[in-house]
Amino acid sequence: MDPIFVQNLHNLLVQTVSPDTNSVKAATAQLNADFYKTPACIPALASILASSPEQPVRQLAAVELRKRVAQNSGNLWISLPQNEREEIKSRLPELILAEIDNLVRHSAARVVAAIATIEIPLGTWGQLLPFLHQTCMSPQVSHREVGIYILFTVLENIVEGFQEHLESFFKLFEQLLVDPNSIDVRITTVRALGVIAQYIDSDDKDDLKAFQALLPAMIQVIGQCVETGNETGARQLFDVLETLLILEVPILGRHIPELAHFLLQCGGNRNFEGELRVLALNALNWTVQYKKSKIQSNNLAPAILEGLMPIATEEEPEDLDDDAPSRSALRIIDGLSTNLPPSQVFPALRNLILQYFSSPNPQNRRGAMLALGVSVEGCSEYMTPLMNEVWPIIETGLLDGDTSVRKASCVAVSCLCEWLEDECAAKHAVLIPRIMDLMNNAETQRSACTALDALLEILQDVIDQYLPLIMERLAGLLETAPLPVKAVVTGAIGSAAHASKSGFLPYFQPTMTHIQHFLVLTGEGEEIELRGITMDAIGTFAEAVGKDVFRPYFPDMMKQAFQGIEMGSARLRECSFLFFGVMARVFEEEFAQYLPNVVPALLASCKQDEHGDESISLSVAEASSAFASGSSPANAATAGDADTSVELEDVNLDKLLDVNSAIAVEKEIAADTIGTLFAACKAHFFPYVEQSALELVALLSHYYEGIRKSATDSLLEIVRTFYDLSDPQEWKPGANVVGSICQYLVIQHLIVHDEVVPLSPSVKELVGHVLIPLLEMYETEDNKSVASSLCVGLAETINKVGPAVVEGQLETVCNIAIQILEQKAFCQQDPDQDEAEEAPEDQAEYDSVLISSAGDLVSALAQALGADFTLAFNRFFPLIAKYYKKNRSLSDRSSAIGCFAEIIAGMKSAITPSTLPLLDLFYRALGDADAEVQSNAAFAVGQLVENTQDDLAPQYLNILGALRPLFNVTPDSPAAKLNAKDNAAGAVGRLIVRNTPAVPLDQVLPIFIDALPLKNDYLENRPVFRAIFHLFQINGAALYPFLDRLLQVFAHVLDPSHADQIGDDIRGDLIQLIVAINREDPAKVQASGLAIWLPGA
Fold first, then answer.
1. Distance (Å, rounded) from C-alpha 246 to C-alpha 287?
2. What pLDDT is recorded for position 120?
3. pLDDT of residue 629
4. Higher confidence at residue 321 or residue 30?
5. What was the pLDDT predicted at 754?
6. What pLDDT score does 912 carry?
7. Which of 211, 624, 659, 895 is a Cys-bridge partner for 703, taking CB atoms 3.0 to 4.6 Å apart?
8. Strands, DSSP E only, in 857-922?
9. Distances, alpha carbon 913 to alpha carbons 75, 751, 861, in Å
10. What's the CA gap between 620 and 707, in Å, rounded?
């Protein structure tokens, strides 16, 4: 080794750590040019690391040494003579033991790991493991700390090379986890186990068992960090715990009850530091998310809720961005509600809410109200029949003497309005006055306006009676309220416009005058937020008043939206993109003039990076982990080029790995808007279709589920729109035999009856580019909402485009539905559940949404394939039927019966072989306790009677008897009961048309005709009027006693002041019938006001 080379290198390192920027730049340039490209720099840096008296120089030498060893896949290291490599390998571990500075030791340990990465696979460093084992067992504490840290860093890099040593590692770690003198030894041992866990396979039963035996000791070490306030150690170990939770190997399975209890104790102990409590509660939240089957099977939710409620009552910080134990507790309550069956969550939570809300302590009442609010999303269906118990709490809370309770009650109202629209709208007479009163108080003004905003959004039917008072009050607040309140007020005015539609016209111009100046605000924070919300509201105004009234404002508002894009704010870009979508829907092809400026902005958004200014290379999994949890992966990230890397322990991880959620949401909106623009602008969008589709396909692998969902929706929207514009022939149901017959149907020995109308070449090409990436995305899709959107989008596309859209992919599409219905899709998998084990029937409401979406896909396939779906139906029948059981949720039961009804409508007479088992199922569903299920059952039994070739005359009296209770409604009955009555009427109509003699008309007609006109489900007017026309043709005398009543019904459905209720075909036949009746009894026609429909009138 040249001593002059070493000295010069040392001098440059000294210069590099000086405070003089110019000196640092010059030294760095010389190091890169003259030293770091030659293998000689490696022993020189090792010498400096061993001998320099200056700690910063030793530290820098260690960092640079690791980089040079790793550089170009280890080329510099391998270029060294063997004897020099051996000398460094022998001296470096001893040198680390002698080093007194912790940071230098850690950096030098990473040098060992870098060398081991190269040498261990070659089998040329057999001395390392025995040395580390000996060091870890040293009687000197500092040696044990260094030994385990080196072992940890080595394992991070090459654990796969050490798998045959796992048994000895477990024995070593068992002792180190209880090291009596050093918390650092215990912490690093847990971190090393966290690395090893990632390489244990489910089939490695012995390794799995050995690891699980160490879990109690690992959890104890986490507790020791929390108890002693060791925040750095706690953060590192909670990261390990999160890694264990998300692994597909069931490492934690049987320890979940103890783990949940431990985390709840840590999070609930007010003697611990707040940040550490938040870490513990966040880990509990991850436990709920990723180990829900164990939480469910052990019925842990009630105990967890009992522990969370006292935490939820703690004070919240003023800043919404600051975390606190109370906010973490509410997040977990939300997580329990959305991830578990509501039957396991809401009964226990309801008791706690009642208990806490009756407390004299306002913090308890506030916590109870917030807990109620966050639980609604996941328990809305379960809560619906219990709302009579909930409303007194809400109404009392809005009048509470404590401000914080009143504000929390407003939050709860907002949540209820989002998820229980009908129930909240029905309470308008109570809610509106109380919320308006709270708007008069400065302390509750903002919360009250937020609640009013949510309520107005759903008040379409009754908004008129409140609109003048509300608009007067909101307009006043636009003048006097502080900026944050003005933002909420502006949003509320937008909701009022949305609900009132044309009723908003008198307020449109005055409101525009009030708020237009908000669009020129440029200040960060509150001003930008107000500007964005104003843009959203103006878009809603345009939809309410229509394009003719809004047209004078259109060019200027588009100019403001473009300016928003240029301001460097993700929030304003998001609002501009939303505005573009709304304007396109309102102005349709008139919007095309802006496409050359709008589409490039959307595509640029889709391409942008979300990590800010730092150039960081992250895997999708790492970025996803950081986005979802706010935590960071423990392994090193590489910044810049391959020769430059950063020690993660030396940088701010939160800043480095901060995933900008605002930009991610912006991209989500941009992706969604692309599909909207094509649907609205039609052929004008053709120049942008190819590039848009390419960018959207690229987003299907994005780590953020919102972006994947938007990309999925837009891609399928593009396919549907492109198809509409291709001048398509009307498609016919049947399996596609143009080209090749689907393998799935060949396997089933299906005989194909008809050729399918082929797609145009351009549409077929587009489908090929879009469908395959979507199906590939599904294979690894871990988010149920995205999988649900894919099913719904595919169903809509199949219904529009026909069977040709799935040509060559039918088996894959069928398997998507099969997997979801079997609860074996990737997004439904649970590593803690045995593959042979049936998924529990009681499931979260979000799980039911996915099942329902799969049902939509099956229905669409049946519509597209028609009779050719027969054998596939045999596979699907038991999968769907199992969701109609008494202990299944309303959503499951209702969607199962509805799915069968749509399948029958698609298969038509081909359903005949399954008539009796379906009829038996529908009988049970007609007797269901819930009107929504009864409604679907009535529709289904009508479809079956209409389409089967079996003679169901012997069943008519039983069917009619089962339908009879559905006609017992009053005008104020719930919407579901009114809907069931309409579907029952449609079913009776189908029975009459199919086999009139089998219907006891003298008993049926009074009830049937008294149910008219239909008020809810106008689609059922078709079978109803077909039955009436049929009876007039074959047995008019049976209808004559009801003629006056029928003429009133005819006048109602023909009234041009009503929305169309019957369609053109029925209207034409009905007018012909009126003409015929007029020939027989013109006085009655004249008296009923129907003469205006007679020829020549």
1. 9
2. 87
3. 32
4. 30
5. 47
6. 97
7. 624
8. none
9. 72, 16, 19
10. 13
